[in-house]
Amino acid sequence: xxxxxxxxxxxxxxxxxxxxxxxxxxxxxxxxxxxxxxxxxxxxxxxxxxxxxxxxxxxxxxxxxxxxxxxxxxxxxxxxxxxxxxxxxxxxxxxxxxxxxxxxxxxxxxxxxxxxxxxxxxxxxxxxxxxxxxxxxxxxxxxxxxxxxxxxxxxxxxxxxxxxxxxxxxxxxxxxxxxxxxxxxxxxxxxxxxxxxxxxxxxxxxxxxxxxxxxxxxxxxxxxxxxxxxxxxxxxxxxxxxxxxxxxxxxxxxxxxxxxxxxxxxxxxxxxx
Length: 273
Fold this sequence. Notes:
The chain is α/β, with parallel strands linked by helices. The protein contains 13 helices and six strands. Strands 1-3-2-4-6-5 form a six-stranded mixed sheet. A hairpin with a 2-residue loop joins strand 5 and strand 6 (233-240). Helix 4 (73-82) runs parallel beside helix 9. The radius of gyration is 22 Å and the shape is globular.
């Protein structure tokens, strides 16, 4: 096995431990009673499996973020994000965070765009080339289409808030890996808590999967209201088609239009309730 493969396997095992996995399951069942009896007879010490790497305590945000190792990244990200009391502090924490390899390949950290006081929060997948260069989400062709769709509903970026699952561009615009999502999601969860939108719009299957746990295709999920749970209660969430998909499949725009009409109706209902 090559040295790079060993490093990859070790990094994966560390991530599994940090996310709560403390036992490996074999294809053949293990007789644990026999193991216990043997250890009692031989006097062997039982290794402590519950010892996990501890995330560094949060002091100054920048210093603590840079002290993170790959093995403690998800836990450290959660603690760091939860320590932020406003969006500017959260952005500074994300700018200083070194627990995700994608940041080393990115030109900019793409935090958000629009109005955090807006009623609707749009969440996409990850920055693309144009977003990485400019440092704002949805500024390429997909973003231009999203702006047109908002305009058709008398909305614009001054009235909505836009972000992504990942703040850094994956190479070749590939989907986020489970490890990358696990590291970045604590920042997004905190971002949602601080913005407190009335409605979430999840653009594409990746966003719906990581925020709602939807494992099926976006075509089955779209158009159906879900609930995203926070510490302050549930937020109505609408999975819909990503604008990039609509550029590839223009005939699907009619489905997205139905979803956007349902979103505006939901906002009206919430305002009159």
